[in-house]
TrEMBL record:
Residues 215-230 form the CCHC-type domain. The keyword Ribosomal protein does not apply. PANTHER family: TRANSPOSASE, PUTATIVE-RELATED, TRANSPOSON-ENCODED PROTEIN WITH RIBONUCLEASE H-LIKE AND RETROVIRUS ZINC FINGER-LIKE DOMAINS. One of its GO terms (molecular function) is peptidase activity. InterPro entries: GAG-pre-integrase_dom, Integrase_cat-core, PolX-like_BBD, Retrotran_Ty1/copia-like, RNaseH-like_sf, RNaseH_sf, Znf_CCHC, Znf_CCHC_sf. This is Retrovirus-related Pol polyprotein from transposon TNT 1-94. SMART domains: ZnF_C2HC (SM00343). One of its GO terms (biological process) is proteolysis. It comes from Cajanus cajan. Keywords: Hydrolase, Metal-binding, Protease, Zinc, Zinc-finger. Residues 443-593 form the Integrase catalytic domain.
Length: 593
């Protein structure tokens, strides 16, 4: 805006305002001999230019200003206030700036420059090296190699250096987009660089040949090796090929394929209209009467000799039959048409480099992305491998019934088969099923504890039980059990809250140590909060008690206390039932037990 006003020669009325705001003496810009009439005219013109440059939303905010200087001050107050809020907002935009993969580079640089300019307007200075670092950090993952190559081995970097390198990279990518280095399969057209003129052979003057001389190439007399007609005829094929390719402005079509030829794998293709295969030996059934043409991507027609079926062993081990497969000998890859599968009711889902073809809730076909192609996860079931097709079909039915019945055991399926509940199907031996292992495995048996105690209080077990659904007569809902490992002596403390465990433990410690004259050496508990509080841990460290904790969700490691709690509760339930007492007497029953 300032440049526009200066260009229209109406910046004079705003010079004093700008100089006062920025504390800069601009005496060279101040008009020295300007009449009041001219100054008023410039004021009106500047006021009009500023208003015409504002949007409707901003115009409503400054509509009450009638002078150019007042309008300028109001705009500075609205949008260039050097407040903490504005600084925070702009810095948040700066540090949160990230370029998307599909965003043009110049648009991203323009946005960054705009933020830096707004920061400079409110006197926030960003160092040039910091701005360069922010620009590098805002680039997407595809620029990672560029950032690494630019930052390695350097102690400092400038903004201009980063911008220059980015523009050079952009130009290289645009140039390489039109080059021959295409990663994939496609048609490449180019003009030959020859001038179309055949080079004239400049032979030397021939020497007269003696009829007795013998050729060292064909062993016949009358000529030398360099003039041998047999040798000349052998080279004529190569020479003719070179001459045929030397015409000017000749357009050549060639196939460029940088990928490996997946001759034994299947490609899941959404662009082909039929299933197609060039290998005759893969077909299980073959109809020779079928014919027709298949058009490739370059409108080139390839003959379809036959149509048939091919068996494919899928990723889950199930052999499925692919029907209506065209035999196209000129094809280079085996193609499965995703469009045909969609017509037959299959659903396709592509995510994370994996393509899944579903029929209901069953994954029928799975493809893994290799390069830019989705390759079938499976293999062709050749005819030579299908000698016992009936047995394999029976085995597939056995596996199918196994999955239908929720992975029932082989013995259970045999019982159902004998009762004719599997549609007269004979159950075969099931192979290894990983889903059964994952779904039916259980935790291994825990070994017995290896510790040994020689005296009382050498090793103490403790556990907290509760809460009880029915409070005791005293309002208790928990009880703390403490068991001595050597004597199996047990103490029970009824508690209203779990955090009282530390209090009762200290009382019990003073009691038993005074009675026995011995000290507690080791305490084994679980990881509950009542045993892992800071005051509990500090107290044990102060008293020299070694703490042993169990692994989370592993009650077997504190089996002595857990089994004691179970024994006490079983006895308590029996006492309550025998005396026909209500459950509110459970605390008394536990103490009695």
């Amino acid at each position: 805006m300032r440049a526009l006003l200066k260009e229209q020669r109406v910046w004079g009325p705003l010079v004093s305002v700008s100089a006062k705001k920025e504390n800069i003496a601009k005496s060279e810009e101040k008009p020295t001999s300007v009449k009041n009439e001219d100054l008023a005219e410039q004021e009106e013109k500047a006021h009009s230019l500023i208003l015409l440059s504002l949007s409707d939303e901003v115009l409503y905010e400054v509509a009450d200003q009638e002078t150019a200087s007042g309008l300028w001050l109001k705009l500075e107050k609205l949008y260039m206030t050097k407040s903490i809020c504005n600084k925070l907002l702009l810095k948040r935009r700066l540090f949160g700036l990230h370029m998307k993969e599909d965003t043009p580079l110049q648009d991203h640089l323009d946005e960054l420059n705009s933020i830096l300019m707004e920061l400079r307007d409110i006197n926030v200075k960003i160092e040039d090296e910091d701005a360069a670092m922010i620009l590098l950090a805002s680039l997407p993952p595809s620029y990672e190699s560029f950032v690494n190559s630019l930052s390695v081995g350097k102690e400092c970097i400038t903004m201009e250096e980063v911008k220059s390198s980015l523009h050079s990279r952009e130009l290289r990518f645009k140039a390489s987009a039109n080059s021959e280095g295409v990663n994939g399969a496609g048609l490449l057209a180019f003009n030959s660089t020859t001038n179309g003129k055949k080079k004239k052979e400049q032979g030397k003057k021939k020497t007269k040949v003696n009829p007795r001389d013998i050729c060292n190439y064909c062993k016949e007399p009358g000529h030398w090796k360099k003039d041998c007609p047999k040798k000349r005829n052998q080279k004529s094929v190569v020479v003719a090929a070179q001459e045929d390719s030397s015409f000017e402005n000749e357009l050549v079509l060639s196939i460029v394929d940088n990928h490996q030829h997946f001759v034994e794998q299947w490609v899941l293709d959404s662009g082909c209209s039929y299933h197609m295969c060039p290998n005759r030996s893969w077909f299980l059934t073959y109809e020779k009467k079928f014919g027709g043409d298949v058009f490739m991507g370059n409108d080139m027609a390839c003959k379809t000799i036959s149509i048939g079926t091919i068996q494919i062993k899928m990723h889950d081990g199930v052999i499925r039959t692919l029907t209506e497969v065209r035999h196209v000998p000129d094809l280079k890859k085996n193609l499965i048409s995703v469009g045909v599968l969609d017509t037959k009711g299959f659903k396709c889902n592509v995510e994370g480099g994996v393509m899944e073809i579903n029929k209901g809730s069953t994954i029928v076909i799975r493809g893994i992305k290799k390069g830019n192609l989705y390759m079938l996860q499976g293999s062709t079931n050749l005819i030579s491998e299908s000698i016992s097709v009936a047995d394999k079909h029976t085995l597939d039915l056995t596996r199918l019934w196994h999955m239908r019945l929720g992975h029932m055991s082989e013995r259970g399926m045999m019982v159902l088969s004998k009762q004719k509940l599997l549609r007269d199907h004979t159950v075969k031996e099931l192979k290894f099923c990983e889903h059964c292992v994952l779904g039916k495995h259980h935790r291994s048996k825990f070994p017995k504890a290896q510790h040994t105690t020689k005296s009382t209080l050498d090793y103490v077990h403790s556990n907290c039980w509760g809460p009880s659904r029915v409070p005791s007569l005293g309002g208790g809902r928990y009880f703390l059990s403490i068991i001595d490992d050597y004597s199996r002596m047990t103490w029970i403390f009824i508690m209203k809250h779990k955090n009282q465990a530390f209090k009762y433990f200290k009382e019990w410690k003073i009691l038993v140590e005074n009675q026995t004259g011995k000290r507690i050496k080791r305490l084994r508990t679980d990881n509950s909060l009542e045993f892992c509080s800071a005051e509990f841990n500090d107290y044990c460290k102060k008293e020299g008690i070694v703490r042993q904790y169990t692994v989370r969700n592993t009650p077997q490691q504190n089996g002595v206390a857990k089994r004691m709690n179970r024994t006490l509760l079983e006895k308590a339930r029996c006492l309550l039932s025998n005396d026909s007492l209500t459950k509110s007497f459970w605390a008394e029953a536990v103490n009695t037990a």
